[in-house]
Design a protein that fits this description.
The chain is mostly helical. It has one domain. The chain has three helices and no strands. The chain is elongated, with a radius of gyration of 18 Å. It comes from Lentinula aciculospora. This is Complex 1 LYR protein domain-containing protein. InterPro entries: Complex1_LYR_dom, Complex1_LYR_LYRM4, ISC_assembly_LYR. Residues 8-65 form the Complex 1 LYR protein domain. One of its GO terms (cellular component) is L-cysteine desulfurase complex.
């Protein structure tokens, strides 16, 4: 049985997963995968069994590989931006 991953390795995987999730061009996919990553790593953080932590870590590593491939495809075939994404600042009387 191998040792559980270090805290640094888990944080590195978490940041890589978030970075990849933010690279989706589609708003809905991007926000879904960010929420999913946070939930996954909260589960890892709350776990105390080393074997279960190792299992969750290896599963998250496999999911990151799939997420990276999916992000590339989404960037290639991404659609239009949604109105919710286009957040321009509006000028008010005080700004003029």
């Amino acid at each position: 049985m191998s040792n559980p991953p270090s805290r640094r390795a888990i944080l590195s995987l978490y940041h890589s997963t978030l970075r990849t999730s933010k690279s989706f061009s589609s708003y809905n996919f991007r926000n879904y995968f960010i929420r999913r990553a946070k939930d996954t790593f909260r589960a890892i953080k709350s776990e105390s069994d080393p074997a279960r932590i190792q299992n969750l870590y290896s599963e998250a590593t496999r999911e990151l590989a799939v997420l990276r491939r999916s992000a590339i495809v989404n960037q290639l075939y991404g659609g239009w931006k949604l109105a919710i994404e286009d957040q321009k600042t509006e000028m008010t009387r005080a700004d003029t």
